[in-house]
């Protein structure tokens, strides 16, 4: 089956000349003898629904060499990614430092017992889940996203600082709730910002570069807690209180810096981009993702909301995301305690949380490199979930006799994190690549908000009464990984089936049948749109 004319020119654009025609691609396929039309679509990624560039714009893009294009994106990498990674590092440290505070005596000082600690973990996710979509809808209205993101960071920094002076569990619950309010907008907002700068074939490695901060936050959190806890008694405060106070102050400083340093959009970045570079980024974004019509009327907004809520793929993508969120948060909130129960002292347990997170960060980058290299997300997701399945199977069986299996269990904690950390950036990249411009920001936030229900699950699966076996924790993580693998395979099959069906319609017939306005309103449901596998 041949690829309809006009549908096979988008994805990673050809920099050294104009986009190849169908006949040229057919000729290449005939010469190679191995590439099918479906493979060509797969290799080039998602295709936009409409919004073709003008001839002059196509010529401008064609005039940009591959070397120059790489240079432009490297400039963006150096400006954008370190700031987003640092902010996400701060967010994750502030979210998970409660686990470090726990083994330093927080639960005892606040007279917490039973599931009180689990409740404190779960409360964070209530506003976090509910506010992700509204936050991204607010973000896209800001001319300078850096100001909005900076305010979020300052807000959660103040909340974390206040956590250091709480006197009872009720006050802790309140600060955890408002921490969720301010952190809700950061991750989906950062994913949307990245999708505005990079084409589909370059996106997952960039998202993973930022997301490695989540893994490294576990390492830094352990190191910081080890050092800060030595301030126990300074100023009349316990060591665990200083963990919150100092890390909260650091977050406020990071938020202020964000307002001035985070790049906004190519058009607002001419201070460090040449005019031609900014134009290239804008046109390449329009070519690979569509012009991005904005929803102005309430009717348009309602239509977009309905499309998001009824989009089958978002629920499967959310399940993929959730399959990582539940085991990740379960381990992140409880790893210091789990390692301490292996027979290590409190200070050594803090330090021994570092290596597994480093392994998780490296795994996320390697996984993303190959996913972007082959522009095929499904195998990367399956490999990652396979590691999760393997690791939690071993932990489920061996943790019951942990004193005789300390080394084995500690190694498989590393493997577990090597599996869970590649999944969220992969799911986010898959989502961003397979949503049309009109609903990308809100759709990406919706996917992550539903997926973060896994955070609530992860908050309750490790119970003190089940230590050190934690059958609920390890068993639930195992089940979530299996569900995530099934969802990834199902998505890939459906995307391939839909793409094949759409390949059977020529662009000429489609444009005769629908107006440009109708095709635009369909967004990624347009017959001119191709899903990224």
Task: Give keywords.
mainly alpha; 533 residues; Growth Hormone, Chain: A; 25 helices; 0% strand; 73% helix
Question: What does this protein structure show overall?
Answer:
- The chain has about 525 residues and is mainly alpha-helical.
- It has one domain (about 65-495): Growth Hormone, Chain: A (Up-down Bundle).
- Helices cover about 75% and strands about 0% of the residues.
- It has 25 helices and no strands.
- It has helices at about 20-30, 35-45, 55-65, 65-105, 105-110, 115-130, 130-140, 145-165, 170-185, 185-195, 205-230, 240-260, 275-290, 300-310, 310-340, 345-350, 355-375, 375-400, 405-420, 425-435, 440-450, 455-460, 470-505, 505-515, 515-520.
- Mean pLDDT is about 85; it is low at about 1-50.
Summarize the structure.
Helix content is 73%, strand content 0%. The chain is mainly alpha-helical and 533 residues long.
